[in-house]
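Each letter names a residue; structure tokens follow underneath. Both lines appear below:
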Amino acid sequence: MIRTMRTLKKPVWEPMKQYSFFYLFTITITFLLIVFGFIVWRSEIYTVTFLNDETSKNFTLIMLGLSVGFTLYAIHTGIIRSEKRIDYLKLLFGAFVVLMTLTVIPLITLTYYLSGETSAYAASYTYSPGGHKSCAGAEVDDPDLGRNIKICAPEGHYSSDKVIFVSKKTNVLGAVILFAITTP
């Protein structure tokens, strides 16, 4: 039996079989990397970054406008058809929550990495114990943000209410705590 070149030629790229171990391994590693990346982001960037009030208000209004636009688009194109008005309201609030969740991570990361003016101040603080969803630290009134912020685990003995020295970077979107130490 003589084979021609045409029958021996294999395609350059074959799609991965979805029941192979390599596919399962790739999906598992990708999922674990995403979870690990979120945990690192939450502990390293989210805890030290604070948005200013103007950024928070504008961000919320923009996400609300986008969710209204998405809801109107879904109604206009017929993606959602219902006789109950509550279903449209559920779509609006669902779109708002999903958009806020997906875009707050890039916004806080952008605030963290933007350059800004470095400043320092000393202020009195109160001890804030950690809970199920928060860390133990010091609550201090930040002069640039105009509100109380919680600094997680500053250097020094922070369980007694004394004075804290805070070094931070302030940019257009908010502030990033660079270093904080309590005085004995």
Summary: The first strand starts at residue 49 and ends at 51. The chain has a mean pLDDT of 88. The chain has four helices and six strands.
